Amino acid sequence: MTKNQIHEWHERIEDGRKQYIRAYWNSREWQFQVAHPDGEKWMPLEQPEPERWLELRDLLFRKYQRKKLPWKYVVELDKMLEKRGIRENEPAKDEE
């Protein structure tokens, strides 16, 4: 991955306001930050939940589909997720 990538997205919290999430690649690792609607200050997320990692993966995949990001970045993130034991929800397979 290239140095200093920043990817941002938002989600709605309980009261309907937007909370922004930022994932920052600093050439060695991903760092996550969150900005609550009450203030504009970015707070670090030391131990992001698996859902955050999957949201980042989804964001990178969508950027790849729009030709805004090379496929190798998605593959590299998939390798990181595999090392962490994080997987997307797979449909249940019928056992015969």
Query: Can you tell me the number of structural domains?
Result: 1
User: Which H/E pattern describes the elements?
Assistant: EEEEHH
Low-confidence stretches: 90-96
Structural Rg: 15 Å
Helical stretch tally: 2
Q: Give the tally of β-strands.
A: 4
Strand percent estimate? 25-35%
Walkthrough of the structure:
The chain is globular and about 35 Å long. The chain has a four-stranded antiparallel beta sheet, with helices on one face. The chain has 96 residues and is α+β, with helices and mostly antiparallel strands. The protein has helices at residues 50-65, 71-84; strands at residues 5-12, 18-25, 30-35, 43-45. The protein has one domain (5-84). A hairpin with a 4-residue loop joins strand 2 (18-25) and strand 3. The longest helix is centred in the middle third of the chain and has 16 residues, at 50-65.
List the helices and strands and how they pair.
Layout (H helix, E strand, L loop, with lengths): L4 E8 L5 E8 L4 E6 L7 E3 L4 H16 L5 H14 L12
Antiparallel strand pairs: 1-2, 2-3, 3-4
Helix pairs in contact: 1-2
What characteristics describe this protein?
four-stranded antiparallel beta sheet, alpha+beta, 96 residues, globular, disordered C terminus
